[in-house]
Design a protein that fits this description.
Shape: globular
Helix content: 40-55%
Strand content: 15-25%
CATH superfamily: Alkaline Phosphatase, subunit A
CATH class: Alpha Beta
Largest sheet: 7 strands, mixed
Low-confidence stretches: none
Strand order of the largest sheet: 2-7-6-1-5-3-4
Radius of gyration: 17 Å
Number of domains: 1
Structural class: alpha/beta
Length: 268
């Protein structure tokens, strides 16, 4: 039985702040029981190039995304994790849900996650698009969590990507040292707990093998904001927790562009 992959992206998460606050018990529990690696994102530390690197396994030069405008990108030629998993095995079902439109919305300049309309019509690929820029990420993250939990309960897709942005939004507005950022982390930690519980339930009921993977695209300066090349802005990590299987045996040192290949090998 192939391992099912659930990649959870938490935009702008400063993991050290989350863990030291005591407001993220689900994250803390996962980190303590999972494979954990830290790495540095390449500058400029914007979400566009960061998520493009993580999701396509490409460098900035390869995917051509240099900021959040996505002008001149090469994403059509750099298929994402979900697409590559499907091309590897066309029985694969895939799922994506995000509230930042450039990740999933085909009406814009991107998206990073390929639309794959034929697979959507054949019920092999499902994409949930929301607009947190317009409606606010506190509301939209809750909708994304509901969609993810429904997908897990009803279908259990083989490879998924789910994204939350409330922490990044709070970091930009309030900085990362105040109550607002910690409250956003606490909300997202609740969603992480829900998703973990849903995967554990599927594993117990269906004898499935899962790999739950968490990462972020950049950190934040204390006063809020990112884009530069400071160590705190470039800080990222991966937490990889085997559920119904052992944790992966990945190299001690990895780069963000290595993640796609590592996850595809777990599916092989």
């Amino acid at each position: 039985m192939k391992t099912k992959i659930f990649l959870l992206g938490i935009d702008g998460l400063v993991l050290s702040t989350a863990l030291s606050s005591g407001r993220a018990p689900a994250l803390a529990n996962l980190k303590s029981s999972a494979l954990f690696r830290e790495f540095q994102m390449a500058a400029p530390t914007w979400s566009g190039p960061g998520w493009s690197t993580i999701l396509t396994g490409s460098s900035h030069a390869q995917h051509g995304v240099t900021d959040n405008r996505f002008m001149g990108h090469q994403l059509l030629h750099r298929p994402d994790l979900l697409s590559r998993a499907y091309y590897q095995d066309q029985s694969t079902t895939t799922f994506a849900a995000a509230g930042w439109p450039p990740l999933v919305d085909p009406s814009g300049l991107a998206p990073v996650i390929h639309e794959r309309r034929e697979q959507q019509l054949a019920y092999r690929h499902r994409v949930i698009v929301r607009d947190g820029e317009t409606h606010g990420y506190k509301t939209v993250d809750a909708e994304i969590a509901d969609a993810a939990n429904y997908a897990l309960a009803m279908a259990g897709p083989d490879v998924s990507f789910v994204y939350f942005c409330g922490a990044d939004e709070a970091g930009h507005v309030y900085g990362i040292l105040g109550e607002q950022y910690l409250a956003a982390i606490e909300r997202i930690d609740g969603y992480v707990n829900q998703i973990t519980t849903a995967i554990e339930k599927r594993t117990a009921e269906n004898n499935e093998s899962w790999l739950l993977v968490l990462t972020t695209d950049h950190g934040h300066r204390d006063e809020g904001g990112h884009g530069g090349d400071s160590e705190q802005e470039r800080a990222s990590f991966v937490i990889a927790k085997g559920i119904g299987r052992v944790n992966p045996a990945w190299p001690t040192e990895i780069q963000p562009e290595d993640l796609v290949e590592l996850l595809l090998k777990e599916r092989a």
